[in-house]
Amino acid sequence: MTTALMEAFWAYERALMADDVAALDRLFAPGPTTLRGDAEGLLVGHDAIAAFRAVRGGAPARRIVDTHVRPIDDDHALVVAVTEPERGGRGQQTQLWVRGGAGWQVVAAHVSGPAPALDRRVWRVVGDPLVAATAPGPLDGRRVAVKDLVAVAGHRIGAGNPAWLAAAGPEAAHAPVVAALLAAGADVAGIARSDELAWSLAGTNVHTGTPPNPRAPHRISGGSSSGPASAVSLGHADIGLATDTGGSIRVPAAYQGLAGHRPTHGVVSTRGVVPLAPCFDTVGWLTRGPELLAAVGDVLLPADTADLATDLVHDAGLTALAAPEVARTVESWAAARGVRPLEVPLGPVAQWRAAFSTLQGWEAVQEHGEWAAAHAADLGPDVRARFERAARTTDAEADRARAVVASARARVREDLGDRVLVLPAAPTTAPRLGADLAPVREATLALTCVAGVAGLPAVTLPLTAADGLPCGVSLVGPAGSDRALLALATRLAAMDRTGT
Amino acid sequence: MTTALMEAFWAYERALMADDVAALDRLFAPGPTTLRGDAEGLLVGHDAIAAFRAVRGGAPARRIVDTHVRPIDDDHALVVAVTEPERGGRGQQTQLWVRGGAGWQVVAAHVSGPAPALDRRVWRVVGDPLVAATAPGPLDGRRVAVKDLVAVAGHRIGAGNPAWLAAAGPEAAHAPVVAALLAAGADVAGIARSDELAWSLAGTNVHTGTPPNPRAPHRISGGSSSGPASAVSLGHADIGLATDTGGSIRVPAAYQGLAGHRPTHGVVSTRGVVPLAPCFDTVGWLTRGPELLAAVGDVLLPADTADLATDLVHDAGLTALAAPEVARTVESWAAARGVRPLEVPLGPVAQWRAAFSTLQGWEAVQEHGEWAAAHAADLGPDVRARFERAARTTDAEADRARAVVASARARVREDLGDRVLVLPAAPTTAPRLGADLAPVREATLALTCVAGVAGLPAVTLPLTAADGLPCGVSLVGPAGSDRALLALATRLAAMDRTGT
Fold first, then answer.
1. What percent of chain A has pLDDT over 90?
2. Could you count the other beta carbons within 10 Å of the beta carbon of residue B112?
3. CB contact residues (below 8 A), chain A span 437-476, against chain B
């Protein structure tokens, strides 16, 4: 038994080193119950494993330095191997082998490799901490992941783009939001990745890779606040300090099962933050739960200037923009909290969404058009295309979009009054890595532009869809009601836990 | 079957969360073949696993979010579980269970948890990179881990002590060695841990923990250049920029299976480096192999001022200071390379070693005595005790020690001439975590003080002892022969690979 088994074991190792995908697929048992897990998550079924192998481009070169074979019966054995990657460190591989008609095959594999110094998909720089709190306070011991758009004194801003970073000098002072967190007891853990110039909702930065989404393995993180979001969901940080122009907090919160707050436009300082489209830009934050989300609000938000009714409404048309599994999850959450239908549907949302994108693009070009034109070759294709398209927007088109946005803002604020709108934070759960994201982006902006055009605060809470993947519900409140909205969100979230 | 198995599975999980070590030990199969592996390495045998559990102080709180049970036969099953630690991220646990007289028990477990943002035992701050190369050069693409004693512009020096760090301001300029590496194409990956004020050979920093030693799991890293050494052995960096006063490069190189160079005293700038004992302090480096070790030397070393004979000698008395398994490994390596016995034994080594320690302590007190007295409560007990003892050294004792060192220096240089002394880099393989290190330190200094008192360059090469653990051989050459010594070491190391 052992000879044939070890022949198969070494054949597998050779195939792995040669990235002989066909041989690897043959040496893994067929069927839906075969397992393969690593730091990126567990894959279930031969097809999922084969699909992963087909695109990964080979495993790092390594040696087997130790093997322990544990025969179980004539047809089963466990083989545990210690691996030594050429690039350093050690790993472990545990395989359950079974002998069948096709000889010995792996039915379950667990692979661990040495962790890198830092996960460059998530972080650009990280410390223990990078910047220590300047005073004790309510956020004592909390670690902040700062999106790479926000000034941290002594460090550069990279804005998600290597050419931007290379030309940047160290910041002379902290952005006021960073200084406020440090003065409230929080440490800055590090500077986390952003989509380029924050102009994406995906997190698929072409230069540094897509941060992992631990709750939805092998799926995208969401962006553009992808680094802070993944840092928080990975437990690398407690607070992700981020920005949201068109959904850049709400989308990663939904995809990763996090809480997030996009404040009322204008109430949290954007000083020291690279702008995208100032008429929509906000600085907000992500956490693993609503209590800390509110505690950060206590530090960063001014006193409320508007009251909040505990009257919750939803718009069936907006909810229907989401995929059925997300819509159902949000509807069921809303029903359990007595959310009532809005009398008059909001909209025309399609027109708002178009105006939002036109005006966002026009402002982005005002801010960065010259840089983007000079650095077209340094930009990923999606963001480059957005700049190129936006550069063709005329002033007249921008004026028309501005008028639509102004009227939408008035309309939403009037229709909602002091009530809270409940809607899906994003229309889908996290798309798979490699999926076509263009249609998802369109559908997402239709949902997220409501708070965007109206400049309203939006708290996002994590839900779980029927398939186990995270999705999010957003609560959009009156302008200037941020603290009350965060308190309401905390109470609404607690209803799940107390069963009330 | 499944019911009883899953009862055992959940009993194990409850015991883990309660840190009920007795229950955990009962649920793991007795005997020498039981396996448990995690990121710190593979433990073999129930006793080793129980010893690990007895001291770890519990596992992080977690939930099981997914389980896959794969029954093998009536008495065996594999259970793969996805875990979600409360602090974030996801992990995986693979267990092979067997049913025997004691019910279901684990015979093999493979446990993976989410990696932290950075391993704070290894790094204080790390980036992608932290500081980019300033010019292309021979070290293009190489990543440097800078010991936290060496100035990196814009960053503070922590010297292995939190109170030191808290009082430090950012450095205005790079240390010349850092600037030289950056100008030669290397990036600074980050700032890696040091023992406090570099005054230890263990790496067991009480504030930030002992860096892992991947080649010798559950054993100490060696110090004081513990962070750069572990960063290199983990593959987090290619070059560890470090210091060696009494063995701080040679010891971690030996314990972790790395190559290291301690230069001739005075030939590499110590400007911008926190001193310990200037009359012995050197700035050197660690790599995974001798070729890169020599390539760094090409960048940092001046032209040689002394010739080197290819005449290799050893001193049986010095080699006998090492434990038998290390002595045998070094002797066998030396025999294969025609190393001849020295005619006249070197020494009196015990006297040199005492004078080395006296003078090192006296100088350390000149440098840092005032600070250490003011911060006694901020220092770990070992380093504090060294400062306290050294503070009692009289000027007359220091003068006598200086005279012994001067005479030793002349004696060693005369006895060796242009020959190369081959000796164990450290007397043992890496001691286990928690072992009493005082006797190891004494024996180590007896070996390492030879190059120390004589101010001679020492290249350390990695060997493997019979038990599979790393150990090291040092080649001590004439003063000013560093480049030739590195070239010789590269040739001698290659003899293993070519079989010549």
1. 97
2. 23
3. none
The residue-averaged pLDDT of A268-276 equals 98
CB B66 within 8 A of CB B92: no
Q: Which of B82, B128, B237 sits opposite A124 (nearest CB)?
A: B128
In the sheet that holds A91-100, the strands lie side by side as: A41-44, A35-38, A103-112, A91-100, A76-85, A62-73
Quick count: other Cβ atoms within 10 Å of Cβ B309?
Answer: 16
B76 sits in which H/E element: strand B76-85
A117-139 CB burial, b ≥16 within 10 A, e <16: bbbbbbbbbbbbbbbebeeebeb
Scored b (16 or more CB within 10 A) or e, A53-68 reads beeeeebeebeeeeeb
Q: Tell me A212's DSSP state.
A: P
- Contact between chains at A88 and B125 (C-beta distance less than 8 A): no
The domain spans of chain A are 2-112, 123-498
The shortest CB-CB distance from A154 to any of B70, B82, B170 is to B170
Would you please indicate which residues of A are annotated as catalytic (active-site) residues? 147, 224, 248
What pLDDT sits at residue B310? Answer: 82
pLDDT at A498 over 60: no
Res. A496: pLDDT tops 80? no
Q: What per-residue confidence (pLDDT) applies to B267? A: 98
Does the model's ipTM exceed the 0.85 cut? yes
Is B147 known to be catalytic? Answer: yes
Instruction: Find, among A314, A324, A244, the residue nearest to A285 by Cα.
Output: A244
Residue A333 near residue A314, CB atoms below 8 Å: no
Q: Is there a contact between A240 and A186 (Cβ–Cβ < 8 Å)? A: no
Query: Of the candidates A470, A462, A428, A165, which has an alpha carbon nearest to the alpha carbon of residue A289?
Result: A462
Whole-Å CA distances, A44 to A34, A77, A109, A214: 6, 20, 11, 16
Which residues of A fall within a CB distance of 8 Å from B154? Answer: 154, 170
pLDDT value, residue B497:
62
Q: Do domains B2-112 and B123-498 have the same CATH topology?
A: no
Per-residue pLDDT reduced to its tens digit, A152-161: 999 999 999 9
A298/A304 Cα distance (integer angstroms): 11
DSSP assignments along A16-62, one per residue: HHHT-HHHHHHHBPPSTT-EEEETTEEEESHHHHHHHHHHH--PPPE
CA distance A368 to chain B (A): 25
The pLDDT of residue A408 is above 90: yes
User: From the candidates A33, A118, A123, which should be mutated to test the interface with B, based on the most B CB atoms within 10 A?
Assistant: A118
Helix (H, G, I), strand (E, B) or coil at A267: coil
> Which is catalytic among the residues B221, B226, B248, B357?
B248
Q: How far is A320 from chain B (nearest CA, A)?
A: 30
Least Cα distance to B215 among A38, A193, A91, A477 occurs for A91
What dotted CATH number matches B2-112?
Answer: 3.10.450.50
- Given this model, what pLDDT does residue B210 score? 98
Q: Which residues of B touch A235 (CB under 8 A)?
A: 85, 87-89, 114, 116
Please say if the pLDDT value at position A500 is more than 50: no
Kindly give the interhelix angle for A176-183 and A290-300, rounded to the nearest 10 degrees.
110
**For chain B, which residues score pLDDT lower than 50?**
499-500
Specify the residue for token string 């472990």: A92
- Inter-residue contact B83 to B62 (CB < 8 Å): yes
Question: At residue A1, does pLDDT exceed 90?
Answer: no
Q: Do B127 and A126 lie within an 8 Å CB cutoff?
A: yes
What residues in A contact B467, CB-CB < 8 Å? Answer: none
Q: Containing H/E element for B78?
A: strand B76-85
| CATH number of the structural domain B123-498 | 3.90.1300.10
